[in-house]
Description:
The protein has about 280 residues and is of the alpha/beta class. Helix content is about 45%, strand content about 20%. It is built from eleven helices and twelve strands. Helix 8 (about 205-210) links the parallel strand 8 and strand 9 (about 215-220). Helix 4 (about 95-125) packs across helix 5 and helix 6 (about 170-175) packs across helix 7 (about 180-190). The longest helix is centred in the middle third of the chain and has 31 residues, at about 95-125. Its EC number is 2.4.2.19. It holds the Pfam family QRPTase_N. One of its GO terms (cellular component) is cytoplasm. It is an enzyme of class 2 (transferase).
Amino acid sequence: xxxxxxxxxSLVSNALAEDIKGxxxxxxxxxxxxxxxxxxxxITKEEGIICGLNIFSLVFDILxxxxxxxxxxxxxxxxxxxxxxxxxxxAKSDIILYGERTALNFLQFLSGIATASNLAANELxxxxxxxxxxxxxxxxxxSLQKYAINVGGxxxxxxxxxxxxxxxxxxxxxAGGIKNALEMIRSYNAGFNQKIEVEVSSIEQVIEAxxxxxxxxxxxxxxxxxxQKAVKLINxxxxxxxxxxxxxxxxxxxxxxxxxxxxSMGSLTNAVKPIDFSLNxx
Length: 282
């Protein structure tokens, strides 16, 4: 993702419009007579992986037409210590106050995702299994959330419905079975060299996916014992992904006991805790 592409600029502009709505009554009243240049700094209140520095500055690019000074004391993806100074910025006081909340919201939200991504990736250190995200993202924010996943060290699954073939349970019901679904996909998608992934939830479905020559089998919401049996049955004939009921606590155990190629975690984007930052005048 290009961090300054049109969609991101539009997203940040809309976030500012949502917060300001034409005016900031408090700031306008106080800054109307005297609006000095103010220097301030951003401090992290907890440890984490920082992500979103360019988005933070984009807020002030939009508000001040680049008429501000900014310095960074951390690099994108760096691990932060508690109370570390990460940014200093100098601009007119009203510009700082207009943009403060929006800039911090992006910074803390993306840093929270990057921190969770980093923790998950580190949990699998030394193993062949890789962590993936999912499409369980906030509407309109997917590009930034998936960017933060990469900054943290995990990888992206499908970006959208057009970027991969994944036959899920409702597709299987609609098609009348896994084999039918695979045949329909291949007939519709003839000539395209795309891997076909099938979501399964039982050993019987694993067998059907293997017989239908699926390229990737996703073991969804299965017990570790069932997953081990499935992986043994697959025997390296397809790529194996695991999904459902995966947490930071059981992530490594699942990887070690199944030796799956990938484990996808929706919680990396839909259940993360933001990293707390504060912006203070100095």
